Amino acid sequence: MFDFELLKESKKTEARLTKITTSHGSIETPIFMPVGTQATVKAMSSRELKEINSQIILANTYHLYLRPGDELIKKAGGLHDFMSWDLPILTDSGGFQVFSLSDMREIKEEGVYFRSHLDGSKHFISPEKSMQIQKNLGSDIVMAFDECPPYPAEKSYVEKSLNRTLRWAERSKKEMENSEQALFGIIQGGVYPELRKKSVKEMTKLNFPGYSIGGVSVGEPKEEIYKILDYTTPIMPKDKPRYLMGVGTPEDLLEGVYYGIDMFDCVMPTRIARHGQVFTAEGRLTVRNATYAEDFNPLDPDCDCYVCQNYSRAYIRHLIKRNEILGVRLTSYHNLYFMLKFSEKIRKAIKEDSFLDFREEFYQKYKLK
Amino acid sequence: MFDFELLKESKKTEARLTKITTSHGSIETPIFMPVGTQATVKAMSSRELKEINSQIILANTYHLYLRPGDELIKKAGGLHDFMSWDLPILTDSGGFQVFSLSDMREIKEEGVYFRSHLDGSKHFISPEKSMQIQKNLGSDIVMAFDECPPYPAEKSYVEKSLNRTLRWAERSKKEMENSEQALFGIIQGGVYPELRKKSVKEMTKLNFPGYSIGGVSVGEPKEEIYKILDYTTPIMPKDKPRYLMGVGTPEDLLEGVYYGIDMFDCVMPTRIARHGQVFTAEGRLTVRNATYAEDFNPLDPDCDCYVCQNYSRAYIRHLIKRNEILGVRLTSYHNLYFMLKFSEKIRKAIKEDSFLDFREEFYQKYKLK
Questions:
Q1: Where does Zn(2+) bind (chains A, B) (predicted)?
Q2: Domain check: are A164 and A25 in the same one?
């Protein structure tokens, strides 16, 4: 099952409050989705993810197809059972990862031939194959198989690729007929306004239950993403969820929401955590640095998470310097908590018609990198 | 504060049930103590340690002295505050680690000169210094500074070393005068019965609140340890706790308890966990092996821990093969739970006068490696 409710629209911005219902429960948006690439959100257990109020997590089709294999996950009863997560799961189509392999893949009309980044073995993923994998995974929200052009890319190439993505979306839809899983179409078009417009126009004709904005976070400057949103989201259907793929710093969330995005995902919070860097209300802090060797304050004095209530910067720095697993566990937990709490604050601000004030207060305190 | 109660003695063996009280709470023995070498039990959070009923944990003086430094830990309010653990902590004296450095250290009557295994820097630890470090750490139970001879070692060397350990025990005691921390004397003597006897006789004259058996788990066959216990524990004071240092497989616990040991510690449960190996009621299982790729059973079908209630062998194998932190978290959690639950079962068996039956049943099911 899949249901979408538009609960509230902001008056001065495109920001909106929505509720998405799947067979594994409901999601309130705007929401940040932690990424569990290999059927695990790095360093986190499923009950910790629930404790920090993760409403939905993401998993990667490409990685799970290669290892441990989608057939194995199907035997386990699907991804929910396999990883012990009973709330919603969204899977990508594998397209983004396959296209990132650059010289190890060949794109044809029928699909993409590529070699595994793990062992060089040969593989083929088509729109149909991507849907079959995602069916085996049993995620609640699945993505159509798209081509994600690099940045920068010639307009003519982006247009050709966009047209193929449309044909692939139709094939994805056909393969997903009669499925309980909700298939999202992906808007492409690079940094070209008329191509994004064309993509929205043609993709929405297929009447998907939701739409993603793809082809971002591929190396372009942040301003380009915001520009794309500025001319793309207003023409997207209001009565469908909007998901900005692979984007999700705190400032990205604020800007995305401002332009009307509902869903975000990014590996960044757990990736920087592994390098000893954490979010605070004042900006990012590299707790690994010698400055914090004798700092007995919590990571973020404004934070009420389990980590900030129990551990100090000095202790976490010690753990990270000594390569102790608990160090990365604590920074990962805190960073994801920060993002989910931040999503919650954004929802509250929209509810109370104070989103613009909230955004301004954030920038006054949070030092951008 | 420190208090010891002998609650029950087994009739047919030396096994006993005791209660040790420290200023951070009470411990029921026989007990396995998880090892938190660098102020963290590897891969575990403090609340997980509580959840699996860890009554007391161990930390290493040598490692903490080097990094992050005992002075820093003192500033943090001691080890309990630093690592967010409010139950009892036992620290070793640093002796074992220093003597393991072999060619990087020189033993003199005043103490040991050595080079750090981390950066080669020069250091000196004496009995007084070891006590000062342990005071800074603020552990509840501290160990006297001893010399731990290697195995094999000539009797004449072991005797010389034993005498030095006695002189160092006196100096340790003097340095710890007026401390709230409970100082344990360490019984040495290698594999020589009369030296062990001499050590017990002389060490108990110093009237420590507890005694450890050291100089084991240094490369000798298991049978040697059990022989040592057979002739050593019966002559140790009944009204003091007995701690067998660095020993702690399931079978070691059973045999140690049989011979009258109360406390055990070992890095083994977390170390094998990092290599994808776990305890089950039937013996050790290497979940990393291909055999378990599609095995959707829990690690140990007889186990009621969080891991076994929620995750399968196939999933944990996948995580470990992919070097995902959660994999090691789950195997570590399960192995420590196994050891603590096993300690609890041993206590119950002693209470119910069925320890010998319990021991026999264990060996019938558990395949030794």
A1: 303, 305, 308, 334
A2: yes
| Amino acid letter, residue A149 | P
Query: Structural domain of residue B326, as residue ranges?
Result: 273-334
> Omega before A68 cis (within 30°)?
yes
- pLDDT of res. B103: 81
pLDDT single digits (tens) A279-296:
999 999 999 999 999 999
State the total domains in chain B: 2
- The answer, yes or no, to whether residue A101 has pLDDT greater than 90, is no
Shortest distance, CA A367 to any CA of chain B (angstroms): 29
Tokens 């929802």, located at residue: A347
Tens-digit pLDDT profile for residues A136-190: 999 999 999 999 999 999 999 999 999 999 999 999 999 999 999 999 999 999 9
* Domain CATH code at residue B76: 3.20.20.105
Residue B100 has a pLDDT of 85
Q: Identify whether residues B10 and B135 lie together within a single domain.
A: yes
Q: Quote the CA–CA distance of B35 and B32 in Å, as a whole number.
A: 9
- Determine the residue of chain A that is closest to B324 in CA distance: A42
In a domain, B88, yes or no: yes
pLDDT at residue B41, rounded to an integer = 98
The verdict on residue A350 lying in a domain is no
User: pLDDT tens across A293-346, in order?
Assistant: 999 999 999 999 999 999 999 999 999 999 999 999 999 999 999 999 999 999
pLDDT given at position A99: 86
In a shared domain, residues A206 and A280: no
**Would you call A32 helix, strand, or coil by DSSP?**
strand
Tell me the whole-structure pTM to 2 decimals. Answer: 0.98
Distances (CA, A) of A193 to A224, B299, B315, B361: 11, 54, 44, 74
Name which of A43, A294, A326 is nearest B75 (Cβ-Cβ).
A294
Q: CA distances (Å), A236 to each of A207, A310, B143, in order?
A: 11, 45, 70
B294 and A45 in contact by Cβ < 8 A?
Answer: no
Among the residue ranges A94-103, A335-344, B150-159, B167-176, the one predicted with the least confidence is: A94-103
Residue B369: pLDDT over 80: no
> Which of the residues of B are catalytic?
92, 265
Angle between helix axes B155-175 and B127-137 (nearest 10 degrees) is 50
Residue positions forming the annotated binding site of B for substrate:
92-96, 146, 188, 215
Q: Are residues B297 and B206 in the same domain?
A: no
Residue A103 pLDDT: 81
Q: Is A265 a catalytic residue?
A: yes
Q: How many CB atoms lie within 10 A of CB B26?
A: 14
Q: Which residues of B touch A296 (CB under 8 A)?
A: 75-77
pLDDT at A369 over 90: no
Answer yes or no: A86 catalytic: no
SS3 assignment, position A98: helix
User: Chain B residue closest to A326 (CA)?
Assistant: B43
A294 and A168: one domain?
no
d(CA B182, CA B208): 8
pLDDT in tens, A198-243: 999 999 999 999 999 999 999 999 999 999 999 999 999 999 999 9
Backbone torsions φ then ψ of B51, nearest 5 degrees:
-60, -35
State the DSSP code for A97.
Answer: H
ipTM: 0.98
Q: Are the beta carbons of A299 and A315 closer than 8 angstroms?
A: no
CB A170 within 8 A of CB A131: no
